[in-house]
Amino acid sequence: MGELIAVLSGKGGTGKTSVCAALSTALARMGHKVLAIDCDMGLQNLDISLGLSDSGAISFLDVCEGRYSLSQAARHDRFQSLAFLTAPLNRTPESVDADAFRDMVRTAKREFDYIFLDAPAGIDAGFELAARFADRCLIVTGADPAAMRDASRAAQRLELMGKTDVKLIVNRVSRKLFSTMSVTVDDVMDTAGLPLIGVVPEDQNVTLAAAFGAPLITHTNRGAAKACEAIAKRLEGRRVPLSIFDIF
Ligand SMILES: Nc1ncnc2c1ncn2[C@@H]1O[C@H](COP(=O)(O)OP(=O)(O)OP(=O)(O)O)[C@@H](O)[C@H]1O
Ligand SMILES: [Mg+2]
Fold first, then answer.
1. How far apart are CA 221 and CA 137, in angstroms?
2. Percent of the chain with pLDDT over 70
3. Residue 74 above 70 pLDDT?
4. From the alpha carbon of 207, which atom of ligand 1 is closest?
5. Which atom of ligand 1 is nearest to the CA of 11?
6. Nearest to residue 203, comparing CAs of 220, 187, 186?
7. If you measure from the C-alpha of residue 40 to the centroid of ligand 1, how many angstroms do you get, rounded to a whole number?
8. How far apart are CA 159 and CA 95, in angstroms?
9. At the N or C end, where does the chain have fewer CB atoms within 10 A?
């Protein structure tokens, strides 16, 4: 049975989509069957971070509503074990039938080892859709006060939803911040009240890879790519110590 992992934040622009794509591609490269689902309806861009074009990709609603089957999900040209469903255009999360969504992810869990849901910003209906059936939730935050506050609100919302496996990823940690990083990361964990699964450095390769239409982990094996590979291994259950050498 596969694992359904929601990548969430609260505050917008913290790096959910970039991290979701890096984790999906890293686990696919490790040999797992992975399905990446863009749940950001109307503002979908997971295809870009995956190094795919969404033209021709079917949406998760196409599958939920029976127009296509999961086996028709787009395949990644570089990682054959990675499939992708985009978010539908011109539909709202409120209009998604929760039972149909649940049935789709249940089927996906039989066919894939990991299913990633890239959530929209905010903690409303799109957040709930992504988190509702998730086995694990990853909250991606920056170390700035606004992101931390929103991560804390997202964590509270998940607690109310009965989610127990919730972990924090602190993204865009800079070298400058690194001199006080242990304090900063502790602060972030305290504020969000969540355990940490990884720290990802500020790395211009995240934006560059997307601009070149390449997945981050094939563009480089350092910086943010290396940090995301370490998180992917932790998701597999491997013990990968958090080391500054993984980050910078
Ligand atoms: N570790 C990083 N280093 C440098 N830039 C990053 C990093 N992570 C993300 N970015 C950049 O930050 C911007 C926002 O990232 P991304 O789209 O992944 O965030 P998001 O949380 O999915 O946003 P939204 O809430 O709008 O869905 C992008 O330009 C991306 O390239
Ligand atoms: Mg996004």
1. 25
2. 92
3. yes
4. 31
5. 25
6. 220
7. 14
8. 24
9. N
Model-level pTM? 0.95
Question: What is the share, in percent, of the chain residues with pLDDT greater than 90?
Answer: 78
Q: Which domains does the chain have, with CATH numbers?
A: 3-236 (3.40.50.300)
Residues with CB under 6 A from ligand 1: 9, 12-18, 40, 120-121, 171-172, 200, 202-203, 206-207, 210, 224
The whole-number pLDDT of residue 59 equals 95
The type of residue at 9 is S
b/e burial code for range 105-137 (CB count within 10 A of at least 16 → b): beebbeebbbbbbbbbbbbeebbbbbbbbbbbb
Of all protein residues, the one whose alpha carbon is nearest to atom 25 of ligand 1 is 12
- Going by pLDDT thresholds of 50, 70 and 90, the confidence category of residue 224 is very high
- What one-letter code names the amino acid at 140? V
Q: 227 near 202, Cβ under 8 Å?
A: no
- What is the maximum span of the chain, computed from C-alpha positions, in angstroms? 53
Q: What is the mean pLDDT of residues 142-168?
A: 92
